[in-house]
Amino acid sequence: MKYNLSLSIIFLLCSIGAAQEPTRSQQLGRSVAELYQNGKYDEAIPIAEEIVGLERKAATVRNLVSALENLAELKIARFKRLIAEFNAGAIEPDAIKDSLAKLNGGAESAEKNLREAIELADRDAIGPAEQRAAIRSNLAWLLYHYQPNDPELVIAFDKTGRDKFEMRSRARYQERIGEAANLYRQASKIAQEADPKSNTALLTTYKFAEFALANGDLEDAIQLLETSIADVERIYGPKSASIVQPLELYIKALTATGQDDLAFDALSRLVRVTGKSAEISKDPVNISYRADKVFAPVNSSSVEANATANKETATLSGRSATFNSSFEAMLAVSTHGRQLYNGAFPANINKVPVKVLVDESGKVVEAEAGIADKDLKRDAEKAVMDWKFKPFTSAGKPRRMKGYVVCTLFTDRLMKRL
Fold first, then answer.
1. pLDDT band at 57 (very low <50, low <70, confident <90, very high)
2. What is the DSSP letter of 241?
3. Secondary structure class of 365 (helix, strand, coil)
4. What DSSP string describes 281-337?
5. DSSP assigned state of 371
6. Each residue of 355-369: pLDDT tens digit?
7. 226 and 264 in contact (C-beta within 8 Å)?
8. Which of 49-63, 71-85, 333-347, 375-389 has the lowest mean pLDDT?
9. Nearest to 43 by CA among 74, 5, 79
10. More confident call, 124 vs 301
11. Residue of 301, 298, 302, 266 lying closest to 281 (CA atoms)
């Protein structure tokens, strides 16, 4: 279910073989393909950018679309590796700033490359259907996994600031996720209409299912995975290795929705296909976006306690200033006691993962935060216990859900997770 090379890079290499005298772009394309295969993305990207420039001058739209796709895929590959390195703590402290700039800049420019490629391909109705579907899938993936910086997204402890943070976070998420879903639907339709038995059609359905599950859309995810499994079985047979990935994801979705019998049957099927022992993954599903308060940040208990204490101090100082004490007068006009209310005090965002068990009505019955700090662990668990989830129903029967959510805590310092 995976490509080793992007479609456009494969196409470019085939073009080189067919041409008697390779063009400059094709010669550079050889280098790009080799660097791509060896994971040398930083070296490959400038060459891919040169190819884009050459194809713009040549004014061959089809080749320009492929060049833009190549360039975007290289940037996405580097983006994925940087994310993995950040998560593993593999980036040295003095390199974090440059790595973040590379990550954000690469993702933003990749999005622009893919949007231009789609516009060109659709406008002139050119290029293989497989390529047009793949470009849409790549852009959809990027829209979900990358959120550009929002200068209006102010982090503040006061209610007005928190409300604005929630509103803008929700709007930005819904805009990008909505577009991503539409792109996946378009990609699936293009691939199915071109050749429903193609690898592109199978891969697009699987990616759409993967997206739905990551987005907490368990109903669509399960349906798409059942379709994916059935398609692979029909085209390649019940023991094809291509059925492994959708089966694994299917088991994960069934386990998250309390359908243990079906999950066990799917697991047994996986064992028969692979010939190896297997067990149900303990990696939980992210069901954050089924919750009503997922975008609402919460002040940590220490912040609230400090805010109350500072406010009381400022109030008392104001009253005692009439005694002409220079120290008391200074306190009376100080903004220290008001900073936690007007957003001037520096805040840090802590994204705390919390494992949850949700009953049939959508109420949280268990919550366990994965963070070392005991106070923030308690704060996150307390906040999530008040969340209400969209209930999951299968065959008309409501079922429990289990997975994890991400709780946003505003604190005056960064914390370490478990």
1. very high
2. G
3. strand
4. -----B-GGGBTTTT--EE-HHHHHHHHHHHHHHHHHHHHGGG--HHHHHHHH-SGG
5. B
6. 999 999 999 999 999
7. no
8. 333-347
9. 74
10. 301
11. 266
Q: Which residues have a Cβ under 8 Å from the Cβ of 351 and sit 6 or more positions away?
A: 406, 407, 408
Closest C-alpha among 191, 206, 188, 203 to residue 248: 206
Where is average pLDDT lowest: 101-115, 145-159, 169-183? 145-159
Sign of CA dihedral 335, 340, 341, 345: positive
Region 178-188 average pLDDT: 96
Helical segments of 38-158, H only:
41-58, 61-87, 96-124, 129-145
Query: Six-digit token pair at 238?
Result: 């019940």
pLDDT by residue (tens digit) across 313-333? 444 444 433 333 443 333 333
With contact defined as beta carbons under 8 Å apart, do 409 and 381 qualify?
no
Q: Is 275 left (phi over 0), alpha (psi -120 to 50) or beta?
A: left
**Whole-angstrom distance, CA of residue 35 vs CA of residue 40:** 5
- Alpha-carbon distance of 47 to 45, in angstroms, equals 5
Q: Is the Cα dihedral 233, 236, 240, 242 positive or negative?
A: negative
Coil, strand, or helix at residue 164?
A: helix
Residue that is written with structure tokens 């903004």 in the block: 335
CB-based contact 169:407 (threshold 8 Å):
no
H-run or E-run covering 403: strand 401-411
Domains defined along the chain, listed by start: 1-127 (no CATH), 169-283 (1.25.40.10), 289-411 (no CATH)
Instruction: Please tell me the pTM assigned to this model.
Output: 0.83
Q: How many angstroms separate the CA atoms of 232 and 199, rounded?
A: 9
Mean local confidence (pLDDT), 253-267: 95
Measured between alpha carbons, how far is 64 from 55 in angstroms, rounded to an integer?
5
Determine the Cα–Cα distance for residues 227 and 191; give it in Å rounded to an integer: 15
Q: Tally the C-alpha atoms within 13 A of residue 127's C-alpha that lie toward its C-beta.
A: 32
78 confidence band (pLDDT: 50, 70, 90): very high
Question: What percentage of residues in the chain have a pLDDT greater than 70?
Answer: 83
